[in-house]
Specification:
Layout (H helix, E strand, L loop, with lengths): L1 H14 L32 H11 L3 E5 L13 E6 L5 E6 L1
Parallel strand pairs: 1-2
Antiparallel strand pairs: 2-3
Length: 97
């Protein structure tokens, strides 16, 4: 019993951790999506070049392609642009978040 009492403080110290730095979810520094900046890409076909151009126009860090009949998460990210597609892989709308 004495051995446990002697080692208890050491065991508790080993379990403690320093507080972690706060994590900001959904934001990449310097990248906040600008709504409406890429509306000119509506009705264009999906491609890598179009995706890069949309990222540049909206200043977003992340692009999320949304094919038809696919469920998306409701989480909001200020640095993301969501691009909805139709059955022909044409862009139907773009929204930040």
């Amino acid at each position: 019993m004495r051995k446990i009492a002697l080692f208890a403080p050491a065991l508790l110290t080993a379990c403690s951790t320093a507080p972690a730095a706060p994590v900001v979810h959904g934001e990449t520094p310097g990248h906040t999506c600008v709504e409406g900046a890429a509306d000119s890409y509506v009705s264009q076909a999906r491609s890598d070049a179009t995706g890069k151009a949309i990222l540049t126009a909206t200043k977003a860090a992340v692009i999320r392609w949304a094919p038809p009949n696919v469920m998306l998460t409701m989480d909001y990210r200020a640095d993301r642009v969501t691009v909805w597609l139709d059955e022909a892989n044409k862009i139907t709308k773009l929204r930040c978040g």
